[in-house]
Amino acid sequence: MNTPYRDIVDQHVIDVGLLWELRSVVIDQPHYSPVALTKLEQRINRHLDALSLQPELAWDIAVEALATEESGETFTAALLAFTARENSGKNNEKITQVVKAARANGKTFKGLVSALGWLPEAIGLTWIQPRLSSHDPDDNHLAIAVCRILSHDPGEPLAHLLERGTQHPQHPLLIHCLRLTGELKRADLRADCQKAATAENPDIRFWGIWSSILLGEHDDAQALAPYVLQTHPWQQKAIQLAFRIIPDNVADAWINHLLHHPGQTRQGIKAIAANGRLHAIPRLITLMQNDTLARVAGEAFSLLTGIDLKQQQLAGPCPPPDEDPDDIDSALEDAELPWPDVEKVAARWQQQSADFDTGQRYFMGQPITAAHLHDIIATGYPRQRHAAALELALLEPSSPLINTRAIAKEQQ
User: Fold this and answer.
1) 324 pLDDT higher than 90
2) 165: exposed, middle or buried (C-beta count within 10 Å: 0-12, 13-18, 19+)?
């Protein structure tokens, strides 16, 4: 469709996808405040409002972009399909087309699920309801993924889909059902999680253990050792969970293993932060002298003490950038972190260490309480908010895990 507005609409379609991609990155960065995130979401919504003025042209452009099989393009097309103001038959055709395209790969699937979470909650839930009772595991998987992003309890169907998942262990349905069970604290499904915690498949076993722990089986945390102590796709999640609840002697042994095992020192630093005990801060300060570890060690120091290196003028100048880092993922993860000035950090800790009680765990400079964690979830930076939500879910046995990656409710 050629119209005088095509270039303008085309740019709006591009901008929605790019801004959504940006949001999917900054939601795990250390420097994006809740206010900045809300402003980013508002920018996305303004572009979507502009597209609603030329819905057919916007749809034609978005469908062409679906061929790229990228998540941002799928997100945009899905929102246009689900919000189309036209007869239900044609609208259903658009939705069917987007859902089919979204099953191309994990990125496109993520874009569709995110779009369904972006819509007013009633729309997303209405659409997924029949898919919870579908006999197609792919439909079930999509419905459960949307339940997860909305923190919605599907009720009795979750038990049935857990059972169906065990009949198709290679399908992602089972893992998503296990994760949702733990996130929602569905204690009635504890036995299903404990059964999964002994599965032969290491991914299913991990999520069985993970959800069992969230359901209150904290002693199961030591079963995470194989995931904590060696490189594994779930190592980061295992570290963030296990070190908040394992006994001190086990935590010390595991941290020593990670710090002294080749390639695992970075994970040991993150374990120190999750563990919340201040006796390890001198080790962190020593590790700050290593350029490849300085920023992650500084972040761990801040997560423990609540001391912001930038605000407290404890950051030093950035060294010249490494044009060819050995670990690109780590370099990207650290890119927005300040470089600690080791001497200033050490002096500040010497001044303030007496203000802390080494006999208890700390998070962001305070003993761990529900009120403090709720405050961090409301006002903190993304990584702080994610950690606070997990800490709160472990502290309060009946409280669901808060989805700190969800769109701000006032934006819906």
Assistant:
1) no
2) buried
Q: Maximum Cα–Cα distance for the chain, whole Å? A: 71
* 408 φ/ψ angles, rounded to the nearest 5 degrees: -60, 130
Predicted pLDDT at 329:
84
Which tokens is 101 given?
């395209």
Distance between CA atoms of residues 298 and 75, nearest Å: 36
According to DSSP, the residues that pair with 362 across neighbouring strands are: 367
Question: What are the tens digits of pLDDT across the range 87-123?
Answer: 455 578 999 999 999 999 999 999 999 999 999 988 9
Instruction: Determine the 3-state secondary structure of 143 from DSSP.
Output: helix
Give 202's Cβ-side CA count (13 Å radius).
Answer: 10
Cα torsion 29, 31, 32, 34: sign: positive
**How many Cα atoms are found within 13 Å in the side-chain-facing hemisphere of 59?**
20
Provide the token pair at 165: 């998942």
Each residue's pLDDT tens digit, 220-261: 999 999 999 999 999 999 999 999 999 999 999 999 999 999
pLDDT of residue 314: 97
**194 Cβ contact partners less than 8 Å away, ≥ 6 residues apart:** 208, 212, 217
Nearest to 274 by CA among 395, 136, 387: 387
Tokens describing residue 51: 């597209």
Report phi then psi at 362, rounded to 5. Answer: -125, 150
| CB proximity list for 22: less than 8 A, separation 6 or greater | 40
Q: Which amino acid is at 352?
A: Q
Are 117 and 406 within 8 A, CB to CB?
yes
Q: How far apart are CA 185 and CA 166, in angstroms?
A: 20
In sequence order, what DSSP letters do the residues of 335-367 get, joined into one string? TTSPPB-HHHHHHHHHHHGGGS-TTS-EETTEE
At a CB cut-off of 8 Å and minimum separation 6, what does 53 contact?
none
Confidence of residue 5 (pLDDT cuts 50, 70, 90): confident
Contact, 374 vs 396, CB < 8 A? no
The residues, ordered by sequence, that sit 6+ positions from 274 with a Cβ below 8 Å of its Cβ are 239, 240, 242, 243, 244, 387
Q: Which residue has the tokens 């010497």?
A: 350
Q: How far apart are CA 158 and CA 180, in angstroms?
A: 9
- pTM, 2 dp: 0.94
Triad 240, 241, 247: Cα angle to 5°: 110
Note whether 270 and 236 are within 8 A (CB): yes
- Which amino acid, residue 296? V
